[in-house]
Design goal:
The protein is built from four helices and no strands. It is an all-alpha fold. It has one domain. α2 runs antiparallel to α4. It is elongated, with a radius of gyration of 19 Å. 7% of the residues are buried.
């Protein structure tokens, strides 16, 4: 096991957030909470795109390839494509981390 020194302010924050006095347990709990929060945030971002375009990313990508997305080469739509794709990747990564951890 890796031993890490935690500063008093960080220790105080960890114990306040988790209610756990043992630093190693508090750090693990805080890390899990952060991972769950990040997953929730990225899932909400994905839902925003799905609402905006009324489809899942796989359908959007297929429609993009077929030239069926209005203004697909505009800055906004291209940015949405790349951000949406990145959000999908992040969600998969975060979910995999949680699955392996829990």
């Amino acid at each position: 096991m890796l031993q890490v020194r935690i500063s008093k302010p960080i220790y105080s924050i960890l114990t306040s957030l988790t209610g756990e006095k043992r630093a190693d347990v508090a750090l693990e709990l805080a890390a899990k909470d952060l991972l769950r929060l990040r997953l929730k945030e990225v899932e909400e971002r994905i839902q925003e795109f799905e609402s905006r375009y009324h489809m899942k990313f796989a359908d959007f990508k297929q429609a993009w390839a077929a030239g069926q997305i209005a203004n697909q080469y505009s800055y906004e739509v291209e940015r949405d494509y790349w951000e949406w794709e990145a959000a999908i990747g992040d969600a998969q990564k975060y979910q995999q981390m949680l699955d392996e951890w829990l």
